[in-house]
Write a structure and sequence with these properties.
Length: about 400
């Protein structure tokens, strides 16, 4: 079990059908490149430390950025690896903590949060990876968690989330030229609400976001930054929107919905206000959605009880799921692992409930005891992920996870 090898999707090449992934072939996790689905993984970093976060240069893909700390100190440094020279260059100061690399749309700059000026404050900095120029301080956070979520289409403004707690967040727009910021989700009558993902629409006056504002669930909403009007895209939503990404031309949104505990992939057309539901994805969990530059394919990490955490993509044109990596399970055959089936019933109060049943693959005609695992929730719902349960036990008994 300690030899299981996972592969997480990091991002697309801007010009080629290639992706960066995060996986381990030795003692540490390193960045690899894939140029075809199921192809050989080309290792790009060879550090003694684990590598975190990686992204191609957004202009031509001539280099990539990645983050690395020392001995688990979490003081992440951002490095640039050039494909022509096969050399890396440190872009940060070497001692502070630097996180959340966000590329501008034109690929000329990136932002990150760093405590290089104030030890207890993660401020927002602007960096130029194409020239050896010092980073520019854009905004001091004064000890409050401020995270860059997106760049405006014209690359002049930043969308920033102010995180107070799991139940309270706000959005700001920061003008890069003037360094002036504007609150676009005002505190409404003392009501608190959370914000998950947020992206600019076609202009700075429109923002799409996931929030539980006036809802039991995280909904995908549209915010008018001029009026403050917050409008759900879908009425009477009964499921959480997990995450989303907007296409490069700002016309399409790919998003995943947690329905009955597993991920459903959906496409929203901003122009036609219509939704396409992709139903040919097996029961499992999706994470780290990201469009390719052409807007034809979305990459993500996918896992199920029989699939390790592996890099996948989905072609929205031909509606085809593509598996890019095939994680190794230390010599075990994952095909023998139990599948998850949805079961539904009504609770004592008549409300519908759902869970997953993992049936033994032994002789099903023999009566067997069943282990029922009930989680109190709601903050940690059981999901049909790889190694969600002990598969050896399942093959002998049966398991129901609620």
């Amino acid at each position: 079990y300690t030899q299981f090898r996972y592969a997480d999707f990091l991002g697309w090449h801007p010009e080629k059908n290639a992706m960066l992934i995060y996986t381990r072939f030795g003692e540490t996790y390193q960045i690899h490149q894939l140029t075809s689905a199921g192809g050989a993984r080309q290792q790009l970093t060879f550090s003694a430390e684990n590598i975190f976060q990686g992204s191609f240069d957004q202009l031509k893909g001539g280099f990539f950025l990645y983050s690395e700390d020392k001995g688990g100190d979490e003081n992440y440094q951002v490095y640039k690896f050039d494909f022509k020279t096969n050399k890396r260059r440190l872009l940060t100061d070497g001692g502070s903590r630097n996180v959340n690399v966000r590329w501008s749309n034109d690929g000329k700059y990136f932002t990150c949060e760093s405590n290089r000026k104030h030890e207890n404050s993660m401020d927002i900095w602007l960096n130029n990876p194409h020239a050896e120029t010092p980073a520019q301080l854009l905004m001091e956070s004064n000890g409050v968690e401020m995270n860059v979520m997106d760049w405006s289409a014209d690359n002049t403004k930043l969308l920033i989330k102010e995180f107070i707690s799991e139940n309270e967040s706000y959005l700001w727009i920061l003008d890069i030229r003037t360094k002036q910021k504007k609150l676009i989700t005002p505190k409404l009558s003392g009501k608190q609400f959370s914000i998950g993902f947020a992206k600019f629409g076609g202009d700075e006056n429109t923002v799409f976001l996931t929030t539980d504002y006036e809802s039991e669930f995280n909904q995908l909403c549209k915010l008018n930054t001029l009026t403050g009007a917050l409008t759900p895209l879908f009425k009477n939503s009964k499921w959480d929107v997990e995450e989303f990404d907007i296409s490069n031309n700002r016309k399409k949104i790919i998003y995943s919905v947690n329905k009955d505990g597993y991920s459903h992939l959906k496409l929203y057309s901003i122009l036609t206000n219509s939704v396409t539901d992709f139903t040919n994805i097996p029961i499992g969990v999706i994470a780290h959605l990201k469009w390719n530059k052409a807007g034809t394919e979305v990459g993500f990490m996918f896992t199920s009880p029989q699939i390790l955490f592996d890099a996948h993509s989905y072609n929205v044109i031909n509606k085809k799921l593509i598996r890019w990596t095939f994680g190794e399970a230390g010599g075990l055959s994952t095909e023998t692992f139990a599948k998850a089936d949805i079961i539904k019933w009504k609770g004592f109060d008549g409300l519908p409930l759902s869970g997953f049943i993992y049936k033994p693959q032994m002789n099903t005609r023999v009566k067997r005891p069943v282990l029922i695992e009930i989680h109190g929730g709601p903050e940690a719902q059981a999901r049909p992920e790889f190694l969600q349960s002990n598969n050896y036990l399942i093959n002998e008994l049966g398991l129901v996870i609620i």
